Amino acid sequence: MKKVKSNNSSLNESDIAKLINRMKIVFPTVDEMPQIVQEEIKFLPTKEEFFSRMDKLSGEIEKVRQEQILHSDQHQEINDRFERVDKHLGVSTAV
Length: 95
Hints:
2 domains; mainly alpha
């Protein structure tokens, strides 16, 4: 590991002012925060809009689950019928 030579000089008033000015470019001040927060949250839905969307999505998910169960039952009925036909004909269509 390379050793870095330490310079024990301290910052003067000019250096501190430069640092503060550069930090203001990157970091918002306390006075700017409310405006920034308002800008950011204006795109968020209201509580009512959020719950309305969640209710709609929950309903759609429930509908898809019910359709999936019905579809699965139809597959089982078809498979049962194939088995009965196979047994009756004495053949096997199983893969």
